Amino acid sequence: MEFKDSWNNRVLIVDDQEEIHQDFEEMLKPGLTETSTDDFAGAFAAEIDESFLPAFELLHATSGDEAYEMVKAAIEAKQPIAVAHIDVRMSPGIDGIETTRRIREIDKNIEIAIMTAYTDKPLAEIVRDMELLHKLLYIRKPFAREEIQQMTLSLAEKWNVEQELAAKRRQLTVSNRRLKAVLDSTGDAIAMFDVTGHLVFANRWYEEFFGLTEAQLKQMSPDALRRHIKRYFQEPDHFEVTESSFFANPEKVFKEIMEVRLPKRKMLYRFTAPVADAEGNAIGRIIVYRDVSKEIEIRQVKAEVSRLRAELERKYAFDNIIGRSQKMQEVYALMQQAIESNITVLIQGESGTGKELVAKAIHFNSSRKKGPFVAVNCAAIPETLIESELFGHERGAFTGATMQRIGKFESANGGTIFLDEIADMHPFLQAKLLRVLQEREIQRVGGTATLPIDVRVIAATNKDLEAALKVGKFREDLFYRIAAFPIVVPPLRERREDIPLLAEHLLKTHVDSIGRSIGGISTEALQLLINYDWPGNVRELENAIERAMLLETSEVLQARNLPTQIRSVHQSLHVLPSQSQDATPGAPAATEILPLEEVEKQTLVHALEVTDNNITKAAEALGINRVTIHRKLKKYNLLENR
Question: Which CATH number applies to 186-291?
């Protein structure tokens, strides 16, 4: 038997006879055991090799009071005594039984052996206090050397093993508390069950989630607990089936999303996996419930953002800027070139031609599409506020500036800023804008720091900037900076062949808002739309279509529901020569009234020209089906070479 170096080998001898102390000194000294003819001594000698005896630290007391004080001092010095051999009868002073009682009051761990010469009495008669008998051995005088060695070794080892186990239990308790604190801090409801389905452990969240205390959980049978928990779930039968599967397949891992209805509706991620011992044998199963309602909501929001972004990209893709005329093809070509670089773009065109639509199409098809698109109407903001609107301001920069404000340029960082109606910008601000375009940095109103920005600038105007240059209303250096890449959007009157396509597109766009189906536009109405000059361009056309749809009671948009100014063009009896010269080829003069069949024929011809003789697309544009258009084409002998 070998003791660890760190073990406690302190032994106290309590006896009023000096020779007893000498005997213990001799018996507990390490050395080879002498051969003994005594059978009892020989039996112990066979078990103990004295060369392996530990170096016991022997302490001696000749009275019970002295022993008590020595044990007390040892505890205070944090060097407790492991074993005490106490004689029953001692004089003067207290006897061995009272000495044992007092020592036990201050040290419950010490191992005590009672020594007595009364060989005919059992220990229970000598020590009548049953509580005192705990951890108490009995040895009769005279002693056998091997008997004392064996007993002292065993008691010392027992004391040290018990203290080591107690320390490990304390460590385990601390570890369990730490583990519980960690599990309680996760926010997940966590429980462990044994292989029979009995609960082994549940954290605070598990208890609170299912409305049970720790005591209730420990008392509940697996079936009772399952019945209690399943009523929390939206689909209790499904819960019971999966719960049974867990324990029927102890080696498997299960994951699923489940909905609970109590205490309130939420989505839970349910995870369960086997728990194995050191040999890999399943000893139970851990179950984790995690509230993923917010995560699912966030994923749904992200999906919705992605959907809206994709919708925006589709909305502002080139194929949704309606027009197949030659002039629009030229615009598309310029837009494509603008998309492939970060060059500043100037979009020019009359009001209502769709300049902002072009700007958005460039942004949402460029490498900056994931960044913001910020539009600023320079004509709609008062001159006193536009600098703050564009560049922001610091708190206290001017009266009313109670807090810092981020300007449009900062908001557009990483994306595109669209400066609409830039011709109306104040000359003072034009100088600041020029500096921003040159330096790529801004300074908030009232601030001293310069802030770098990464912004693409797209400007637009419906005015003649070159004329504004001549009268000094627009800076020449700024003009050449923003007009590096000009795109001119043609007015609608210069691309009349796009009107049928635009009208059909707008009809489909607004059909949901009016709550009823309008399948197409009548031939007469379409002819009026083609003949009108559209000073308000596409915006005016959209308003006219939407108004007519609200008034329409049939399934085809009729001419009578178009605005008066559009219908009056066809009814006009006087026209200037210059107007006749500018009329669209094939369109009737204002003084000429064509038969309805001729108008229908011209409309069919025009629709086929615009759609490159695609009868299906022509039928869709005119709002009629293929059978009808075939019949009409045959009627007017227009099917040849189609």
Answer: 3.30.450.20
pLDDT of residue 427: 83
Which element (helix H / strand E) includes 12? strand 10-14
For residues 311, 313, 318 and 323, what is the CA-based torsion angle, rounded to 10 degrees?
A: 30
Do strands 373-377 and 345-348 pair parallel, antiparallel, or not at all (unpaired)?
A: unpaired
pLDDT the model gives residue 425: 86
Confidence of residue 603 (pLDDT cuts 50, 70, 90): confident
CA 130 to centroid of chain Cα atoms: 65
HEC letters along 74-95: HHHCCCCCCEEEEECCCCCCCC
Place of tokens 């609960």: 199
The alpha carbon of 161 is separated from its chain's Cα centroid by a whole number of angstroms, namely 51
> pLDDT digits over 230-246, tens only?
888 888 888 888 878 87
- Burial (CB < 10 A; 0-12, 13-18, 19+), residue 411, is middle
Task: Tell me which of 460 and 556 has the higher pLDDT.
Answer: 460
The answer on pLDDT for 409 being more than 60 is: yes
Say how far apart CA 503 and CA 524 lie, in whole Å. Answer: 13
Which tokens hold the place of 65? 């009071």
Residue type, 272: T
In degrees to the nearest 10, what's the CA dihedral of 611, 617, 622, 626? 130
| Strand-pair partners of 86 | 14, 114
Angle at 25 between CA 23 and CA 28, to 5 degrees: 100
Q: Does domain 10-165 have CATH number 3.40.50.2300?
A: yes
Give CATH for domain 493-635.
Answer: 1.10.8.60
Task: Tell me the DSSP string of 574-606.
Answer: ---HHHHHTSPTTPPPTT----HHHHHHHHHHH
Strand arrangement of the beta sheet that strand 10-14 belongs to: 57-61, 10-14, 83-87, 111-116, 136-140
The predicted-structure confidence for 309-365, as pLDDT tens digits, reads as follows 666 555 555 656 888 888 998 999 999 999 999 999 999 999 999 999 999 999 999
523-539 mean pLDDT: 91
User: Could you tell me which residues come within 8 angstroms of residue 318 by beta carbon, excluding any fewer than 6 positions away?
Assistant: 332, 335, 336, 361, 365
pLDDT value at residue 621: 77
The Cα–Cα gap between 452 and 585 comes to 54
* Contact between 557 and 566 (Cβ < 8 Å): no
pLDDT number for residue 625: 76
List the domain boundaries for the chain: 10-165, 186-291, 321-490, 493-635
Same CATH topology for 10-165 and 321-490? yes
Axis crossing angle, helix 596-610 with helix 523-531, rounded to the nearest 10? 70
- State how far the alpha carbon of 464 is from the alpha carbons of 107, 467, 471, in Å: 104, 5, 11
Judged against a pLDDT cut of 90, whether residue 62 lies above it is answered with yes
Classify 321-490 by CATH class. alpha beta
Distance of CA 544 to the CA centre of its chain: 47
Structure tokens at 570: 């066809």
**Whole-number Å distance between alpha carbons of 260 and 266:** 6
Model pTM score: 0.47
More confident residue, 27 or 280: 27
Give every strand in the sheet of 266-276, ordered side by side: 199-202, 189-194, 282-291, 266-276, 254-260
* Average pLDDT of the residues in 220-231: 89
Number of H helices, E strands in the chain: 26, 19
